[in-house]
Design brief:
With about 200 residues, this protein is an alpha/beta fold. It contains 8 helices and 9 strands.
Length: about 200
């Protein structure tokens, strides 16, 4: 059976990368599709581990070639998820966790209707703004733009399959783990293996 595709989205600063990384470490058998981006690495980020860092010319060429299942321009930077990479990973039976913005989530759902979408919401916009400022990577103009986008994303996240309020990191991680484990235990996914185990036609 093909692997499941789990998508974790959140407003910028909402913790999607942190939680996606944590569940990959704690839940057995989860893979990760590394996104492409034109933005510069932050802190200790490295190419091929956190992102595939490419220039805008390379990224545009990949768009023209139809290489991405989803891509978006976010605050003057481009982000994209490789279509062939996702298909190869899920075809091998591996479950995949992605962290993308809400635009990317919708595009992935269109291409992979059985994907499971999880949206993280901060406890308040004030807390989100504080997180963005403490991160120290954006100027005031970018922070204001991120806050406006965050409000829109929260208003329009009702089509996601699950919502987690990220007021305490450990609790949010456990809830994301629970969703992944529950989806794996659905009858339609377990029944073929059960029938084979007990030799039931």
């Amino acid at each position: 059976m093909s692997g499941l595709l789990f998508v974790i989205s959140a407003p910028s600063g909402g913790g999607k990368s942190t939680i996606a990384s944590a569940v990959r470490q704690r839940v057995e058998g989860l893979g990760y599709s590394i996104s492409h981006t034109t933005r510069k690495p932050r802190g200790h980020e490295s190419d091929g581990v956190d992102y595939h860092f490419v220039d805008e010319k390379t990224f545009t060429k990949m768009i023209d070639q139809g290489a991405f299942v989803e891509w978006a321009k976010v605050y003057d930077n481009l982000y994209g998820t490789s279509a062939s990479g996702l298909k190869d990973l899920t075809a091998s039976g591996l479950d995949i966790v992605l962290d993308v913005d809400i635009q990317g989530g919708r595009n992935i759902k269109d291409h992979f209707p059985n994907s499971v979408l999880i949206f993280l919401i901060p406890p308040s916009l004030e807390v989100l703004e504080l997180r963005l400022r403490e991160r120290g990577t954006d100027d005031e103009t970018v922070i204001r733009a991120r806050m406006e986008t965050a409000a829109d994303d929260i208003r329009n996240c009702g089509w996601y399959d699950y919502i987690i309020i990220n007021d305490r990191l450990e609790k949010a991680i456990r809830e994301a783990q629970s969703i992944i484990i529950s989806e794996r235990c659905r009858t339609e996914r377990q029944l073929p293996g059960v029938k084979g185990l007990f030799d039931i036609p």
